[in-house]
Structure formats: C-alpha cells, structure tokens
Amino acid sequence: MNQDFLRQMPGAESHLKQSQGLAFRLHLDPILLGLLLVLCTIGLGILYSASGQSMVHVEKQLVRFGLAFFVMFVFAQLDPIVYKRWSPWLFGLGVLALVGVLVFGTGAKGAQRWLQLPGGLPRVQPSEFMKLVVPMMVAWFLSSRYLPPSLKAVLGALLLIFLPVLLIVKQPDLGTSILIAASGVFVLMFAGISWRLVAGFGALIAGFAPVMWMFFMREYQKQRVLTFLDPESDPLGSGWNIIQSKTAIGSGGLWGKGWLEGTQSQLDFLPESHTDFIIAVCAEEFGFMGVLGLLLLYLLIVFRGLYIAVKAQDSYGRILAGSLTLTFFVYIFVNIGMVSGILPVVGVPLPLVSYGGTSAVTLMAAFGVLMSIHTHRKMLSR
Amino acid sequence: MRSDRRLKDSNREKRIYAFRTILAALFVLGLTSALIIRLYDLQLVNHEHFQTLSDKNRMQLQPISPNRGLIYDRNGVLLADNKPIFSVVIIPEYSKNVDESIASIQEIIDITPEHIKRFKKRMRRSRRPYQSVILKSKLNEQEIARIEVRRHELKGIEIQAELARYYSMGSATAHSIGYVGRINEKELAAVDAKNYSATNYIGKLGVERFYESELHGVVGYQTVETNASNRVLRVLDRIAPTPGRNLTLHIDSGLQKKAVELLGAKRGAVVAIEPSTGGILTLVSTPSFDPNLFVTGIDYKSYSALRDSLDLPLFNRSLKGQYPPGSTIKPVLGLGGLDSGVTNRAFSIWDEGKYQLKNDERIYRDWKRQGHGRMNLFSSIAQSCDIYFYDLAFKMGVDNMSKYLGDFGFGQNTALDISEARDGLLPTREWKRALKGRAWYPGDSLNMGIGQGFMLSTPLQLATASAVMANRGRWVQPALLKLASVGDRPIRQRKIEMNDIQMINPEDWDYIIDAMSEVMHGKRGTARSSGRRASYRMAGKTGTAQVVGIKQGEKYDAEALSERNRDHALFIGFAPVINPKIAVAVIVENGGGGSTSAAPIARALFDEWILKLAASDKTESKE
Description:
Chain A is mainly α. Chain A is built from 16 helices and 2 strands. Chain B folds into 2 domains: 62-249, Penicillin-binding protein 2a (Domain 2) (Alpha-Beta Complex); 319-480 and 508-622, DD-peptidase/beta-lactamase superfamily (Beta-lactamase, 3-Layer(aba) Sandwich).
C-alpha cells in the first residue's frame, strides 16, 4: 500500500513490510492500538487518584481492560462482511433483549438495565450491545440502498434507530439512549442524508422536545435538566455534583495541584469522582494543560478513526466506521460537557478513563470493528 | 441486495462521504474548541474564584471553647471543677434512619422515653450540618464500653467527651455558687456570640452567673482540613483559647458545711460575714438541691418535684427570702434613738406588758404578758422589751427610723457581687402613700419599732447590718469573691457608695454592743442559753417574726398549716465583741422563738469559726 514511502526508503523496506505485515496479519491497526494503550495507561493513573488511591479499583479496571482488548482483538479478526450479514439478526436479538429488560429486567437506583440470562449465565446489559448493533443495522439498511438515501430510506432508518432508543429511554437510561441515537444519526449523516431533510427533522425534534419533557422523562431526569439550568438552586442536593465538579476543575488552574494532591477529589467533595466525574479529577490535579493533553490524545484517536473510515472500501464499512468514531467523540464531549457544566448531567462515562467495565468492553469492541474494517481491505479489493 | 448494488453510484457516494467526513472533522474540532473554551474559562479566567471555593470546602475555622475558670473556697478547696463527661450522640447525616439508630442504642444501654423526647427537641433546633445531637449525657463506664464494643455497627452514633461543671459540695453550695447549664438561645443573644461560638454552658445563677465573663475565658480557633463528611483530617493552624479566670471565694467550705448541718431539715438560711472585709463566709439556704443535676439538663420529673415541693428548695432564702426582721433591728433603732437625742441612757419606762397611744383604743402588747418592769435601753435590748421600743418608735417617727435602718443597708441590695439578692422593704411615709394610698399612722411606727408591720429584710441584709454593727459603723459591702487569678480585665462589680455611720457620741456604739453582749451573756439575756460557757464574748440579738396568713401558691393543708403558721426564728450577732471575726444572721422558718432555734445555730458557727481561727493562728505562730 505504501508504495511511495517504500520507494523513498528502500533500505527499510523489508523491516517495515515485516512489522506492518505482522500487525496486518493480526488484523490490528498499530497506530490506533498504540493510542488506545497510551489512553488506558493514563486512565489507570487518573483512576488511582480518583478512587482515593485504591489499588483494588485499579486492578479490577486492569482486568476489564484486558478483557476489553481481548474483545477488540476478536472483533478485529472478523471480516466486515460477517458484521454486515449478521447485522439484522443481531439487531432483532437486541430489540428482543431490550423488551426482555423492560419485562424481566433487574437493576439498581430505579433503572432496569440488566437481563439475567438463564442457566447460570452472567447478566447482560442489552443497551450496551445496541451501541454497536444499531449503527451496524442502520449502515446495513442504508448501504444496500441507493445513496444518498431517499426520504423513504431515511424514515426506515429512523424507525430502526428510535425503536431501540425508546426502549432504552424507558429503562430509563438517558445517557445510553443519547449515544445510540447519535450513532444512528451519524450513520445517516455519513450516508449523505440531504440537508433539507436534516433541517426538517431538526424542526420536528424541536417540536417533539416538550412532548418528551411531559410524557417520557422521569422526574429525576427533569431534575437534572433543571439543575443544569440553575445549579445554585439546590446547592446541597442535585446541584452539589456540578458545583463541586466546577470547583474542582476551576481550582486546578493552568498546571493543576499535582497527582494525588487534588483536594476536591481526595477529600471526597467531588461525587462520582472515579466514574462519570473523573475528568474533574484530571482537571484538578493536572490543570488546563493536563486536560488539553488528554483531549489531544482523544482527538488523535478520533482522527485515526475518521481516517480508517475514509479509507474503507465499501459504503457499509465506511459509514459504520465513521459513525462509531463520531459516537466515541460524543462520549467525550457529553461527558466533559456535563462535568464542566455546559450540558445537563446524563450518565455518560469518559471513555477508557472512567471506572467501569461494560463501557470499556463496548468501546474496545467498536475499535475492534474499526480495525477489522481497516485490515480486511485487501481481501475486499481482490 | 445484489440488485440494489448495481444501481449504486459508487463515486458519488465516495464524494459525498469525503465531504461529510470533512464536516465531521470540523464538527469534532468545533465541539472540542467549545470544551477548551469552557475549560479555559473555568481554569484560567475564573481560577481564583474556584480556588477560593475549593479552599472554603476543605478548610474550616473551628472555634475551640475555653476551659471555664475554677472556683475555690478561701482555703483552696475546689468548689466548682471541670470534669470530662461522656455523651452518646447521633450525627443525623451519618445515620440512615435516626429512629433506627435510637432503637439500636436502646438495645445496648438504657434510654428512656424522656431521653428520646429531649433528643427530638434538640433535633428540631437549628444546627450546623454534621453537628451531633446528644441522646444521653453522663454515660457511665459500662455504658461507654458497651457502645464502643459495637461501634462499627452503629452508623452515625458516637461517644462525645466534653468538660462539664462539677460541684464538689453539691447542694451545700447550690444557693451561693449557683450553677451552669446548657446555654439557650435567649442567653446566646445576650452575650458576644463570637466568643461563645464553641461554648455549651453558661452560668445560670449565683457566682457562676455574676462572674460569667471572668469565668468564661476567650474562645480559640483552629483551621482544620476536613473532607466532605466534615471529618477533621488535620489541623492547619491553631490559636489556643484563653481559659477563664480562676476565682477564690471568701466562702469557707467547712463553715458552709457546718451551717448546712446545723439547719438540717429545717427551712432556713444562714449568712456569715467577715466584718473586716465584708467577705461572705457562709451563704446557706435550706432545703437545697443538687446543682450537678442542672449542668447537663435536669429531667422533667426531677425538676417538677423540686419546683412543686412545698419546702421550695429552689428558692434561695438567704438572698430572696424577705422576712419581717422582728426584734433583730432593736440595736439599730436604739443606736438611732441615742444619736438623734430622742432617748438617752438614763431614760427608763415602766413596762406593764401593754402600751397604748393617746386617742387610740388599740393595745400594743409586750411579748411578755406580765411585762418587764422598769426598763432602760440597755435592758430593753438585752431582754427584748417591746414596750420600750413602742415608746422609742413613737418618739423617733418613721422618717428617723428609716434613715438609721437605711444607713445599715436595709431597703437595698448592698452586695458587691450578688445581683439576685432582693431589696427587702424599708417603709417610709412616701412609700405607704404611694402604695397603700394612706397616710402613715403612729401605729405603723410602733409596729416598725419591733420589726413587724411593713418592713421586710433578707438574711443577707441582716448579716450585713450585723457586720456594720461589729465594725462600729464602718461599711463593708458583702462580697463572695476574695480574689481572681491574673487577668487583664478589671472585674465588674456592684460598687455602691455606702457612708460609714458616724455617731455624734461614738461611745454609743459600745453601749449598744454591750447591750447585745448582755443578750448572750447577761443573767436575763434572751439568748443567754446560747452564750453559756464560751471562751470569748459575743454580741447578738434574737428576733421573732410573725407569719402572716398563708403564702400564695401554698395549698391549704390543716396539718402543715399549723406548723407553717408558727413564727420565724431570727438571730443576728457577731463574735468576738473585741475585734470581731464573724457576723451572722440566722433565720429558721416557723422555728418559733429566735432564742430557741436560731441563736444556738449562730453560737455553733461562732465556735466553729473562732476556734478554727485560733487553731490556725497557733500553727502560724509556730511557723
């Protein structure tokens, strides 16, 4: 592939070919893999501080990362064709599982997110699974049609998106439903949906918002939005989180208070400091420069993802890779946005930094799909 | 699907896709910029604001209560000490369910419904977050141990130690030292709130109240780092509190104890004053109560028992009891009669047991039915002849009598450091006209001449008058405080300008004091039985005050009434006659005659004090 490069550096030809060859044979993208490893390492460092210097948390997270990378590796081995073929079946299974969650689900804090599999099998969280499957399904649906999609195709795609999203809103899990809706919409965007339709749907959503507020949002979700609009209205109640996280971020200054030195996080003023609000710990201890560095790392991953998407050879791989990459970015934006107080508090973790196994596995699976799309190109071109 | 693919325009798709990818990249960059701008705003533009918020979060200025000054008697005996007490407290923020927490403590130690009721009352009061609320105070060691053992399972429950007042003499000093109690909102409003920010107790009565500002001290501060649950992690900075000043009182705990013993179960009061200084050696009122009960809060049942007792144990008779002085004011009136020239040493009357005013049918009787016979001023004091004093009172008139009695401190509170003491009542023409709407009749003067009628006095006033008499007119304000430990502030006291009493003929002092000495040692002295076999000479005057009617608030009870209608027994006196060391006033309510129930108590106190002084003089001269 890198014929120009090789021609200029003939001496390195065999070496490069070999290393690239090894990564390719393992269906891995070394750049993406390298960036992700750096991110996970930094994430563990921040987690150690954010969890109150708990090695137990770090070790558990390390195990989850191990599993996540394994899942990524496995997903990278599968040919995109497989994903494409299986998309509708997986989607059907996912929707069934979501219905199952609403009927038999278990969970905590008033939300049903888990489904207990029978026969001693572990609990699963179908909404996580749908983060991958919804964009796959929509990509499958659109890529087999004439692109840019017709109104009929767009409506069909929207149906495919909002069926699972509504089921997840019902759980209720606002964060996940936003991410899934975004992933589906991104597929439409990459598929080339016409701007007139975008404007039309935009207007429709604006009209639909009050209906959402009145009929679909739970009391605590409304409270979150109200708190977002005026956190000081309830400084010791639901406003507490956001006031404390802003204080943590702001007090970090340019260079931060130093690793393990953040008073907001170490003295427990910052709630959820090792999960959703972990970026506040990073901002407090490493300052503006620290967050900037982390954002740069995230941007590199996002742009590598977009690069992979552009280089993909069929429309299914292309729009799926683009959507997965942008969804990854949405995680980052929504998380940092909510912690810094420009977005309402919705439960979205900071990818690969926040403590928690499920999202790490899902994210790495998505990167596995990206790598699969990237490294199976030659076979497709044959 | 294959049929669809044939229709697709792959190049157009790619073109659109590339364009959309560029848009996506711009979308990503745009939103990232928004985040960066937000972070820039929080971390650089508003950094100081959030730094302050963050410091405010973790650093707290905590007040530290100063240790209350200790109170000693004149010999250094500790009367009011600070002792650690342990309370089981609940921090509602840590406790998932306060009722469950109470129930779990109830399983371990004894918690009464009264405890719970008072806990709920405290819960309703305004408090800082994470401030503990006391469930039960004064835990014993066993209770502490029981709670400590199971502490890990008791969420939000802690054992808190604090210093609380302890009165070593208990009820014996309740009416003189007073006591402290938990500070209430009204009291907090009256003091410097900053200085009391860590203080739990305030003087409610007596010395504790009067010298509150000396005893309290100055609050200290510490800056502490706390976590979100308000747990102190470390102390960053500390300004130590200044403890309150230690006070040494004139009170002699031995004499005080003796007075309590002598009064026993009787209702009464004893006040003893050192004439040279005005120092109050003894201030006793019986029955009394245990002040230690009031420190951490008395339970309702015990309180109502004290409050509703017919014997009024909460009532401080020595300062607030206002009694007709009876014959105890005869020496003062005699002195006034001589000084004003109304009578002289040679003048005498014939006492047939009754006295009558011209144009008045009413007969004024002597306490001795058959009369004393020929009486002059000297014998009238010694034998407490009423007829002589009716005559004297008639001749002196109310204005003159009030003047001399006022000079001796009657009608006002002359104490240097007792603000609760009552003024008594020194009647004047103006007073009667204003209050009763009637003129002063000569008969009123006659009653006043034997200490009956309108005049009222407190035991403290009687003891003070006795001390001034012992000093031959030199005034000393009675005081509890002997000295305070070093402090920069001047001590606030009730300085009252009392003029020394000057006699035109100073020998009149000796004449009257001799007559008072005759009361104790004379053949016919009314208190001769109490003056017998003494190694020193003493002066005194007995008195009997009639009890008029039933006091308000008392229920009619035939049996109790007959006892409670008996006369009050009074005695004033001092000893020794030369260079007096102690002046006393004794009152025994419903004790009958002053000579039988009050004078013996005074004599025992004289003995106790003078013999003790003699003993200490001996040891001093040996050294």
